[in-house]
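[Automated response] Your request has been received and processed.

Submitted sequence:
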Amino acid sequence: MNQMRISEVADRVGIPTSTVRYYERVGLIPGPARTASGYRAYDDAAEARLLFITRGKRLGLTLDAVRDLMVVWDGTNCSATQVRMASSSRRSERTFSGAFT
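Generated structure:
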């Protein structure tokens, strides 16, 4: 397992270290392990998670939407997310079809 300091993982993902800390603070990424000297030690899974978040943001998703997708990506609570996405889709369809009547 590859262990990276916060500056390394931030550079690899293309975000500032302050953003990594923020995502950790708001619960989008779990708190990393710490080295004996107290430095954050991120692994490849944390890097993948950060890439997922930053790609979602680049697509225009809010952090709340990214958080909802993280649940699916983690493989938990898929059915609840599917229900939310389906109801959102139905609302969008009604709005769209109503525009042409």
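Summary generated for your ticket: The longest helix spans residues 78-98. The CA atoms of residues 90 and 96 lie 10 Å apart.
If you did not submit this request, please reply to this message.
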